[in-house]
Specification:
alpha+beta; 5-stranded mixed β-sheet; 14 helices; 57% helix
């Protein structure tokens, strides 16, 4: 285990800053900082920004001086590094453009939706998840193109499927589906809204078979995270645990493992040919690995 600090190379606020990271766990990083004058507000998702005058305090508390290259390399290897595409503030402009292209007549609704996605208390179901689902929809559409009306329905389902999220299974999905009606009645045709609501309600139980021919695409786009790289999958699993921090550890482990084993019990996790061919094996390996960890306790 090691907490690392690089040289003060980053100018801001009239001084120079270093980066302070752990190559093992954020808990280790936070614990060391708690023994220094470094402000908790200096934390930026995977590191602390440390002003020059506090570097010696960090080293005295146990941080190891390394080069900027070494720090970046070891942080990336640890799986704790948060890339730009997983930072809500960095991806928000792209999402604003996406919404304005999808529903150009109602830009204010897009802003309100993004505020919902990034409201306090969310850890995994943030605008990062929204962006990943939208990207997955594009990939699956490219593999087996759909018509423009269907494409609109898929994109709106992505925007709204977790727009309401309070950790209440079924209620959240139903409330998200109702939000589409509240926001877009009079903006989009009723048949489009009905289709979007149906796709969202399908996410109540991803093991169910949806009747809409778009369901396989949306199902796979939403579950694309299961086939993420090991580092991204680890961050996903950790963020899910943080969203359920109020649940006792033993209950969370047991319940989470049961849910993941339900996916493994299916003949196919993914329903489209593209996802089944490209994502299935990776997803099953990720699930098996997490289940082993959960069952070991």
């Amino acid at each position: 285990m090691a907490v690392l600090i690089d040289p003060p190379l980053w100018p801001a606020h009239g001084t120079m800053f270093s980066h302070l990271v752990s190559d093992t766990s954020l808990d280790e990083l936070h614990e060391l900082v708690s023994r220094t004058p470094i402000s908790p507000k200096a934390f930026d998702e995977d590191h602390y920004d440390v002003p020059r005058h506090l570097i010696d305090d960090a080293v005295a508390a146990g941080a190891t001086r390394v080069t900027a290259h070494e720090l970046t390399r070891r942080l990336a290897a640890s799986g704790l590094r948060i890339p730009a595409k997983e930072r809500p503030a960095r991806i928000r402009p792209r999402l604003v453009r996406d919404w304005n292209a999808t529903v150009p007549s109602a830009p204010e609704i897009g802003q309100e939706l993004l505020n919902r996605w990034d409201s306090p208390g969310r850890e995994y179901h943030t605008s990062v998840h929204l962006a990943e689902v939208l990207d997955n929809v594009k990939r699956l559409d490219a593999a087996a193109p759909v018509d423009s009306a269907s494409r609109l329905g898929l994109r709106l389902a992505a925007w709204y499927h977790d727009a309401v999220y309070r950790g209440r299974p079924e209620e959240d999905e139903r409330d998200s589906a109702e939000l589409v009606t509240a926001d877009l009645t009079g903006v989009l045709a009723p048949d489009v809204l009905d289709r979007v609501r149906g796709l969202i309600l399908g996410t109540i139980d991803h093991t169910a078979t949806g009747s809409d021919p778009l369901w396989p695409i949306f199902h796979d786009a939403d579950l694309g995270i299961l086939a993420a790289s090991p580092g991204r999958y680890g961050r996903y699993a950790s963020s899910v645990r943080r969203e359920y921090a109020h649940v006792p550890e033993d209950v969370f482990r047991r319940t989470r493992a049961d849910i993941l084993e339900g996916f493994l019990a299916q003949d196919r996790i993914y329903l489209t040919d593209f996802a089944s061919g490209h994502w299935e094996d990776v997803a099953r390996n990720n699930l098996r690995s997490e289940i082993r960890s959960l069952r070991r306790g």
